[in-house]
From TrEMBL:
The lineage of its organism: Eukaryota, Metazoa, Chordata, Craniata, Vertebrata. This is NXNL1 protein. Residues 187-206 are annotated as: Disordered. InterPro entries: RdCVF (IPR029520), Thioredoxin-like_fold (IPR012336), Thioredoxin-like_sf (IPR036249), Thioredoxin_domain (IPR013766). Pfam families: Thioredoxin_8 (PF13905). One of its GO terms (cellular component) is mitochondrion. Residues 1-142 form the Thioredoxin domain. GO terms for biological process: photoreceptor cell maintenance. Residues 187-199 have a biased composition (Basic and acidic residues). It comes from Atlantisia rogersi (Inaccessible Island rail).
Length: 206
């Protein structure tokens, strides 16, 4: 699915950093059912639906609800009128959502490709980019997280025993704890060297 966005830019929700296409994007989207959410924080229908989609996504991916996160990704394609409105809306949504940058011309290409004429719209895609559901808004309203099972089967995902929800943060956690482990190793090594020196001094005193 990362192939759909090759050469494009996505933004990590609530962060200024762009998602790197070659590495981060592959990690974030590959081997997952992908939802493209076309919406707006100002649209009355979207304001009714967005909390349902937020709950739907969290119940499938957040460690508060599930031990292992489902293979599910989401990209928000905004119809907000200003960048500030898009940012304000995304701040109320899950951190794991990705978003097309405000004003990106690729939005129009996606709307045409998936025949999106009104919002809210949720296009459900297989990892290879094929459409599973053209607009899953009513299905999500009616069935909630239960509808993911049928999408998962249709997507024929590679079984990787489902990543743990906290795996999304593994890299940042690893970058923090690795220096601590190395520091502990150095301290332990110094302690052992000190013990050996102490033993040597004891032997010289006799």
């Amino acid at each position: 699915m990362a192939a759909l966005f090759t050469g494009k830019v996505l933004m990590a929700n609530r962060e200024e950093d762009e998602v790197e296409t070659e590495r981060e994007l592959h990690w974030a989207l590959e081997n997952k059912v992908l939802l493209l959410y076309f919406g707006s924080g100002q649209c009355p229908r979207c304001r009714q639906f967005s909390p349902l989609l937020k709950d739907f996504f969290l119940r499938l991916t957040d460690e508060f609800y599930v031990e292992r996160a489902s293979q599910l990704g989401l990209v928000y394609v905004s119809r907000d009128e200003t960048e500030e409105q898009q940012s304000a809306f995304l701040r109320t949504m899950p951190r794991r959502w990705l978003a097309l940058p405000f004003g990106d011309a690729f939005k129009r290409e996606l709307e045409l490709r998936f025949a999106v004429s009104e919002v809210p719209a949720v296009v459900v895609l297989k990892p290879n980019g094929e459409v599973i559901v053209g607009n899953a808004v009513e299905e999500i309203r009616r069935a909630g997280p239960a509808c993911f099972r049928s999408w998962q089967e249709a997507a024929e995902l590679v079984d990787r025993n489902f990543r743990l929800a906290e795996d999304f943060d593994n890299r940042s956690r690893r970058s923090i704890t690795d220096p601590i482990r190395r520091l502990k190793y150095k301290l332990d090594k110094k302690d052992k060297e000190g013990e050996r020196e102490g033993e040597g001094e004891g032997e010289d005193s006799f």
